[in-house]
Write a structure and sequence with these properties.
The protein is mainly alpha-helical. The protein starts with a helix and ends in a 6-residue tail after the last helix. The longest helix is centred in the last third of the chain and has 10 residues, at 70-79. The protein has helices at 3-10, 21-27, 34-42, 70-79, 92-95; strands at 19-20, 55-56, 85-86, 89-90. It has a single domain, classed as Winged helix-like DNA-binding domain superfamily/Winged helix DNA-binding domain (Arc Repressor Mutant, subunit A). 38% of the residues lie in helices and 8% in strands. It is globular and about 30 Å long. Strands 1-2 form a two-stranded parallel sheet. A two-stranded antiparallel ribbon has the order 3-4.
């Protein structure tokens, strides 16, 4: 799994949905690589093309260290896609992307 695999996987998250670090790691070829996903997203070279703000932790919490402005910016970007964020958490039952198709 390399950064390019991670970035391509993140691009697959549909508008109005989120994915977890673990989901992205699995899509990129390493189900145990959630930390690597975090590192890759922190170094995202194309934030307008690679929507890393759509990636949340396994409980739906936003990243406090969101690379492009912190959790408040991540919250704003998600809400712009009509994703409800309460106490910096997204309801995964409602907004989690399904990649099984």
């Amino acid at each position: 799994m390399n950064y390019l695999d991670i970035y391509e996987s993140v691009k697959r998250i549909p508008y109005g949905k989120v994915a977890t670090y673990g989901q992205i790691a699995a899509l990129a070829g390493n189900p145990k690589g959630a930390r690597a996903v975090g590192n890759a997203l922190h170094n995202n070279p194309l934030p307008f093309e690679i929507p890393c703000y759509r990636v949340v932790n396994c409980k739906g919490f936003l990243s406090g260290r969101f690379a492009f402005g912190g959790a408040d910016e991540q919250k704003r970007l998600l809400e712009n896609e009509n994703i409800e964020v309460n106490d910096y958490q997204v309801d995964l039952n409602k907004y989690l992307a399904d990649f099984s198709l």
